[in-house]
Write a structure and sequence with these properties.
binds molybdenum atom, Sulfite Oxidase, Chain A, domain 2, binds ligand MTE
Length: 197
C-alpha cells in the first residue's frame, strides 16, 4: 500500500510543469549548510558591493531595511533534487542595489559571513530575478536559512542563493566559488540540469 501510494504520488508530482527535470517536490524546508550557522549582530551587519576597481557601496542594516523591498513568490530547486513550490520572501531587488554601481564587469562573486562563496553572472542578478531576502513566510529569515539576509536567485539551483550574505564583488572573469570548486556547475540552470562540470 505504502509503495503503491508513493508511486502514484511520484507520477503526479513529475507531471507538475513547475518541476525541473530530475527534481521531486518537498513540502518541508530542508537546511543545507556547509558549516555552522554564523551569528551576526544586526548592529555589525553590512552589505557591501565592490567593483573590480575597488569602489565600494555599503549599507548598514537600517539603511538596507529603508530600501524599497518586494514580495517574492517563487519556486526553489536544490541540486540534491528537492524542489519547493510557492515559497514567499521579502527582499531588495538586485536591480535596486546595483542601480548606482558603475561597472563593466560581467561576473559576480557572492561572499558570505562564515566564508561561503558562489559565483553568478551579473546578468542573472538583473531583470527582476534576484534579491537580497530578509523575510520568509512573513517572518524574519531564520538564522539556519541565511538570516539576517541571503541572496535569492531562484531561477538557478539553490546553492547559488548564498546564505548570510555579506557582499558582492564584481569581476571581469568568472571564477568558481565554494561548491563550484568542488564540481558544481559554474552557472547552475535547473531547467537544463547544469548540475556538475
Ligand atoms: N553561506 C552559505 N550559503 C549557502 C549554503 C552554505 O552552505 N553556506 N548552502 C547552499 C546550498 S547547497 C543550498 S541547497 C541552500 C540551502 O538553503 P536552505 O538551508 O535555506 O534550504 O543554501 C545555499 N547557500
Ligand atoms: Mo544544495
Amino acid at each position: 500500500m505504502a509503495i503503491l501510494s508513493r508511486g502514484f504520488g511520484a507520477r503526479r508530482r513529475e507531471s507538475d510543469p513547475r518541476l525541473p527535470p530530475g527534481q521531486y517536490l518537498t513540502a518541508d524546508f530542508p537546511v543545507l549548510s556547509a558549516g555552522p550557522t554564523p551569528q551576526i549582530p544586526l548592529g555589525e551587519w553590512r552589505f557591501v558591493i565592490r567593483t573590480e576597481k575597488g569602489v565600494t557601496t555599503s549599507w548598514t542594516w537600517d539603511e538596507f531595511l529603508a530600501l524599497p523591498s518586494e514580495e517574492v513568490a517563487t519556486d526553489i530547486h536544490c541540486v540534491t533534487r528537492w524542489s519547493k513550490l510557492d515559497t514567499s520572501w521579502r527582499g531588495v531587488s538586485l536591480d535596486t542595489l546595483l542601480e548606482g554601481v558603475d561597472s563593466a564587469d560581467a561576473y559576480v562573486m557572492a561572499h558570505c559571513y562564515g566564508g561561503y562563496t558562489t559565483n553568478v553572472p551579473l546578468a542573472d542578478l538583473l531583470g527582476g530575478r534576484a534579491w537580497i531576502a530578509y523575510e520568509f513566510d512573513g517572518q524574519p529569515l531564520a538564522p539556519e536559512h541565511g538570516g539576517p539576509a541571503r541572496l535569492l536567485v531562484p531561477h538557478l539551483y539553490f546553492w547559488k542563493s548564498a546564505k548570510w550574505i555579506r557582499g558582492l564583488v564584481l569581476q571581469e572573469r568568472d571564477e568558481p566559488g565554494f561548491w563550484e570548486q568542488n564540481g558544481y556547475h559554474l552557472h547552475g540552470d535547473p531547467w537544463t540540469e547544469e548540475r556538475y562540470w
